[in-house]
Amino acid sequence: MHTLLSILFMTVVGAVIGGLTNFIAIKMLFRPHNPIYLGSWRLPFTPGLIPRRRDELAKQLGKTVVNYLLTPEMFRKKLFTEVNRRIVEQWLNDKIKENVFTEEKTINEWIQQIGIINLPQTIEGKIDTIVVEQMNHLQHVLSTNSIEALLPESWQAKATTKIPEISRYILQKGESYFESEEGYQTIKRLIDDFLDSKGTLGGMIQMFLGDSSSLVGRVQKEMNKFFNAPGTMVLLTNLLTSEWQKLKVQSVPQLLGELDFTSTTTRIQTYVKEELQLENRMDKPLVYYWKDGAEWLAQNIVPQLIAKGFVMAEDQLEEAINRLNLQEIVREQVDSFPVEVLEDLVLGISKREFKMITLLGYVLGGVIGVIQGVIVTIF
Questions:
Q1: Which of 11, 133, 153, 221 is the most buried (most CB within 10 A)?
Q2: Comparing 119-133, 172-186, 201-215, 339-353, which segment has the lowest mean pLDDT?
Q3: 3-class SS letters over 55-123
């Protein structure tokens, strides 16, 4: 009986020692949270293992996260997939349809939303300035350059080849005119005026010749000869060629006189603004001008845009991760955790395992106590 009580006593003592040892060891992982000093001497094992090694733990955890968890390959596999590409593409198409091609917002409101105010008036002001600049430039060019310098060489060559045709046209029209009744009356009036201007001599000629109508036919005949004579054609052609050469070396103001550019500029400015009607046009939604714009973008622009964006993002992924410095972020976050929170976190996850370790301490301590009791009884 004494032997059995001894073995039982040593078993109980061994179990208590084993269990308490494991319990204290687990507690010493975190506690005490802060070092304990006796004067200037710090008690050993203070603070606990985790608080004392928290910096090293944070660094190791950061390296583990970067090297094995949040790697570029992991991001590529999770982010740049065909499914995600389609999701982003559909999201963008929906946003374009809902926000851009909507009846509820005009172009002007879109522009005002991005901070641009009075855009129609600003554009019209720019137009006025451009018109004034261009008209001043045109006035300068016309004033300082000859017609020969302004006209393209092909136009000048074309005009030169047209001079004989113009001469022939003038002679034909002249002949037709003086053969007409109007031409007849014109010749008769000229003869009458000529004879009247000669006074007595004219009166004597009229007295001998009678009515001037008898002279009109002769004059018409002579004029027909003049219009059909080859020399007349050459003469008129040479005359027009000479005048054309003189005209080419003149500037536009020399030829036409000073032009009123001020009123012309004002009219052009008014015309452009009336045609543009910017304020009225911008007071309509974008869908008014482009009804199938959302569908067109969805078919022609958005897929290429998303594909290009994915390629660019994937190319820049590793550099972006490096810039994020995830290892340092994890280290800072872990290092900034209050020890109490870290303790609750670890114990919350491993509470059952820690209890089993404590229980195992009791069991092993008890077994060791039994063995010790048996050994003591035998020897």
A1: 11
A2: 201-215
A3: HHHHHHHHHHHHHHHCCHHHHHHHHCCHHHHHHHHHHHHHHHHHHHCCCCCEHHHHHHHCCCCCHHHHH
What six digits make up the tokens of 339? 């020890």
Mind spelling out the 3-state secondary structure of 123-167?
HHHHHHHHHHHHHHHHHHHHHHCEHHHHCCHHHHHHHHHHHHHHH
Chain position carrying tokens 């003189």: 246
Q: What would the mean pLDDT of 209-229 be, rounded to a whole number?
A: 82
Average pLDDT, integer, range 41-52: 85
Given this model, what pLDDT does residue 3 score? 78
Say if CB 355 and CB 8 are below 8 A apart.
no
Give the pTM.
0.51
User: Given pLDDT bands bounded at 50, 70 and 90, which one contains residue 207?
Assistant: low
User: Pick from 11, 49, 14, 48: which is nearest to 33 by CA?
Assistant: 48
CB-based contact 100:286 (threshold 8 Å): yes
**Cβ proximity of 305 and 88 under 8 Å:** no
Q: Which residues pair with 86 in a beta bridge?
A: none
| Res 166: pLDDT | 95
* Identity at 102, one-letter amino acid code: T
Alpha carbon distance 167, 230 (integer Å):
11
- Work out the mean pLDDT of the chain and round it to a whole number: 88
Torsion sign, CA atoms 112, 117, 120, 126 = negative
Q: What is the DSSP string of 335-355?
A: HHS-HHHHHHHHHHHHHHHHH
Among residues 110, 103, 102, 108, the alpha carbon closest in space to that of 281 is found at 108
Could you tell me the pLDDT band of residue 363, with boundaries at 50, 70 and 90? very high
DSSP 8-class letter at 292 = T
Worst-scoring range by mean pLDDT, 155-164, 234-243, 336-345? 336-345
